[in-house]
Amino acid sequence: MGIQLGMPAVGLPAPPTGASAPPVTEGGTAGIAAAAGIRAADGLLDRYGRRATDMRLSLTDKCNLRCTYCMPAEGLDWLAKDKVLSGAEIIRLVGIGVDVLGVRELRLTGGEPLVRADLVDIVAGIRANHPGLPISLTTNGLGLDKKAQALRDAGLTRINVSLDSLHPDTFAQLTRRPFLARVLAGVEEAARVGLGLIKINAVLMRGINDVEAPDLLEWAVSHGFELRFIEQMPLDADHGWTRDGMITAAEIRGRLERDFVLTPDPRQRDGAPAERWEVRRRAEPETVAGTVGIIASVTEPFCADCRRTRITAEGSVRSCLFSHEETDLRELLRSPGVGDAEVAARWQDAMWGKPKAHGMDHTGLGDADYVQPDRTMSAIGG
Ligand SMILES: Nc1nc2c(ncn2[C@@H]2O[C@H](COP(=O)(O)OP(=O)(O)OP(=O)(O)O)[C@@H](O)[C@H]2O)c(=O)[nH]1
Ligand SMILES: C[S@@+](CC[C@H](N)C(=O)[O-])C[C@H]1O[C@@H](n2cnc3c(N)ncnc32)[C@H](O)[C@@H]1O
Ligand code: SF4
Ligand code: SF4
Predict the structure, then answer these.
(1) Which of 79, 106, 176, 263 has the fewest C-beta atoms under 10 angstroms from its C-beta?
(2) How far is 191 from 184, CA to CA, in rounded Å?
(3) pLDDT tens for residues 214-227?
(4) In angstroms, rounded to a whole number, what is the distance separating the alpha carbons of residues 121 and 106?
(5) From the CB of 109, is ligand 3 less than 6 Å away?
(6) How far is the C-alpha of 278 from the C-alpha of 326, rounded, in Å?
(7) Domains of the chain, with CATH numbers?
(8) Ligand 1 contact, 308 CB (< 6 A)
């Protein structure tokens, strides 16, 4: 059962009230969390009683694909190298998250994390400090065939690979690159080296790959992968998203139900973006063939139970995927004499100002008052 928005969770400090409470801005005001009675041990708490324990860290803003729902065809102005957190800074920041602020799982993302030459060293460095921490990677799979074994050896727990089509032409149309075979080689190698349960992420685009939904699911269950369909969100550089144009979760279930029977997965959702369904083929209704997830950020939002804190490649906290403000931690990390406690306090301030949903005080992607963030999904760290 998720925490109700607006209600402090049991045992947590109440949100600040009264004239003495400093104003809350999404980016955080120095000391605001402390002024509200939040101690380091309270972790990454927000005004609505949610506590972030799931850290999503972007390793780079760069990418070697140009997915139409994410990047512009010409790419973006990549960050200068010195603006991006170094491996040592990342390892320190994860340490502060885990040891001081109660982070319980870590996802490495981007941009495309596999383009970072020191990725294996970063994973190994984090693993050495946190033997029990689940560390997962979200990737487009390009180059995974070369790095899967090293990543597993370094201590990576799991991997999610984005793959929207099994047809070379459709793949190239969606990603603007003809690399389907390379992605499939990466998925195959990740499975061979035993990189946990592999999850496949697919965004369905109307008139392009939406007809492929049942084929993608058949492919995934027959390989033992967990496929998740993601509703397209308004985070594309081209501002091409429309509420009417996107494929909804209800529509996805409808398309799948022609070939499969879907029943709710009895496992707890536990704050996960994906709602999971057990999958049975209509031709074999007695046997569970696998699981499918649907991530319905637009039509069935899950913000009330959000447990995520994001760090961008340049070391800023984004309390929400759709935030309009960021809180820089890199400057503190690079200031001689600044200790972990000070970095942790600024991170807590940023999270205290986390919006209720979708960067606003209510849910509603595509509502009249929704304003798309300046950054695209790739630059936020999806
Ligand atoms: N609205 C919203 N969507 C999110 C958030 N985090 C992830 N998503 C969506 O979920 C998709 C899949 O994310 P992944 O990186 O695979 O992570 P995950 O689903 O949390 O990971 P698992 O723990 O492996 O199930 C992303 O591409 C986003 O579309 C979030 O905080 N808010
Ligand atoms: C931004 S990418 C970063 C990691 C890696 N490059 C990849 O593609 O997996 C993470 C996830 O965001 C998803 N994504 C990107 N733009 C999106 C959008 N506008 N709506 C929904 N999901 C999106 C991608 O499909 C991918 O699964
Ligand atoms: S979704 Fe991932 S692979 Fe596609 S352009 Fe965005 S960052 Fe790159
Ligand atoms: S939109 Fe913001 S509040 Fe909602 S689930 Fe995503 S990160 Fe959390």
Answers:
(1) 263
(2) 11
(3) 999 999 999 999 99
(4) 16
(5) no
(6) 38
(7) 44-380 (3.20.20.70)
(8) yes
> Which tokens belong to 340?
């972990």
| Contact indicator for 296, 231 with CB cutoff of 8 Å | yes
d(CA 130, CA 316): 22
Q: How far apart are CA 25 and CA 52, in angstroms?
A: 18
Q: What is the pLDDT of residue 378?
A: 86
Rg of the chain, C-alpha, whole Å: 20
Give the mutation target among 200, 203, 231, 246 for probing the ligand 2 site: most ligand atoms within 8 A of CB. 203
Residue 62 C-alpha to ligand 2 middle, in angstroms? 13
- Which of 56, 58, 59, 70 has the most ligand 3 atoms within 8 A of CB, as the residue to mutate? 70
Measured in whole angstroms, how far is the alpha carbon of residue 322 from the centre of its chain? Answer: 12
Is 53 annotated as belonging to a binding site? no
355-357-361 Cα angle (round to 5): 60
Residue 48 in marked binding region: no
**Does position 7 have pLDDT exceeding 50, yes or no?**
no
Asked if 311 contacts 56 with a C-beta cutoff of 8 angstroms, the reply is: yes
Q: How far is the CA of 229 from the centre of ligand 3 (A)?
A: 15
For residue 39, give every residue at least 6 positions away whose Cβ sits within 8 Å of its Cβ, in sequence order, or none.
Answer: none
DSSP state letter for 62:
-
β-strands 226-230, 199-203 pairing: parallel
Q: Is 47 annotated as a binding residue?
A: no
What pLDDT, in 10s, does the model give residues 56-82?
999 999 999 999 999 999 999 999 999
Cα 135 to the center of its chain, rounded Å:
13
Amino acid letter, residue 298: V
Atom of ligand 4 nearest to the CA of 306: 8
Q: Using the mean position of ligand 4's atoms as its centre, give its distance from the Cα of residue 6 in Å.
A: 15
- This prediction has a pTM of 0.93
Q: Which two tokens stand for residue 112?
A: 């495309």
Measured in residues, the chain has a length of 382
Which residue spans within the chain are E strands per DSSP?
44-45, 51-52, 54-58, 105-109, 135-139, 158-162, 199-203, 226-230, 260-264, 274-281, 290-295, 308-311, 316-318, 327-328
pLDDT digits (tens, 9 = 90+) for 170-190: 999 999 999 999 999 999 999
Question: Which ligand places an atom closest to the C-alpha of 295?
Answer: 1
